[in-house]
Specification:
Order of helices and strands: EHEHEHEH
Number of strands: 4
Radius of gyration: 13 Å
Structural class: alpha/beta
Largest sheet: 4 strands, parallel
Helix content: 25-40%
Length: about 110
């Protein structure tokens, strides 16, 4: 595998605090952190989603995590587009904040790329 970011995970977030912690913990693959980045786009959440994102970033300094915060609710499409602009990976993977991602499958994808 090359040492460049191969994969950008783009996650638009709106009032997803009840799902977000579970999703994010499954995205932690420290041994492969040089191959992917996580882009969290907070779409003006009114719950503690942004707090969860900031805490996640702080607890995982080895993983490249970018947090984008919209100043008003723009919707999932525009939020994804903001994530695309910030992405540095060769490939993009869109994940919804309420998805249940299996870390083993993510690892298989990263190894394949």
């Amino acid at each position: 595998m090359s040492r460049e970011k191969n994969l950008s995970l783009i996650i638009p977030i709106y009032d997803s605090s009840s799902y977000l912690k579970n999703l994010l913990k499954n995205l932690v693959l420290v041994d492969y952190s040089q191959y992917y980045e996580i882009i969290l786009v907070n779409d003006f959440s009114k719950d503690n989603s942004l707090l969860i994102c900031n805490s996640f970033k702080k607890k995982n300094p080895k993983i490249n995590i970018k947090i984008i915060t919209n100043k008003k609710n723009l919707g999932v499409g525009i939020s994804r587009n903001k994530g695309i602009k910030a992405a540095r990976g060769e490939y993009l993977l869109f994940i919804d904040s309420d998805d249940n991602i299996n870390s083993k499958n993510l690892l298989k994808l990263i190894k394949y790329l």
